[in-house]
Amino acid sequence: MEVGSSNSSDQLSGRVVDTRGKHRIHAQLNRLQQEARFLEEELEQLEKMDKASASCKEFLHSVDSKPDPLLPLTIGPVNATWDQWFERPKEAKRCGC
């Protein structure tokens, strides 16, 4: 490869060849092609999968129908003073935050 002679002839004709730019563009093109292949494979996998919405609805129905065994069943607040910590202060003057 006579890189020096081809570069000098290109420079004489008024054209500057940037070999690093060509390499950079080629590498970027390869990266984009690889990403396109990856996305196509992912789309194929998604097309083969079952509909998730039906499975999710069935799962939510089964979870919602059973009470959580770790949480106690309470209809209202057991201690009314406990709710004060979760409400806004009644007077803005008293709020020290």
Gap from first CA to last CA: 76 Å
The biggest beta sheet reads: none
| Helicity, as a percent range | 55-70%
Q: Could you tell me the mean pLDDT?
A: 76
Strand percentage: under 5%
* Helix/strand class: mainly alpha
Q: Which blocks of ≥5 consecutive residues have pLDDT under 50? A: none
Order of helices and strands: HHH
Which overall shape is indicated by the principal axes computed on the Cα atoms? elongated
List how many beta strands DSSP finds: 0
Helix count?
Answer: 3
> What value does the Rg take, in angstroms?
34 Å
Main location: membrane
Keywords: Cell membrane, Coiled coil, Membrane, Transducer
Domain G protein gamma: 26-97
GO biological process, one term: G protein-coupled receptor signaling pathway
Would you write up a description of this structure?
It comes from Brassica carinata. This protein is mainly alpha-helical and 97 residues long. Helix content is 56%, strand content 0%. It contains three helices and no strands. The longest helix is centred in the middle third of the chain and has 30 residues.
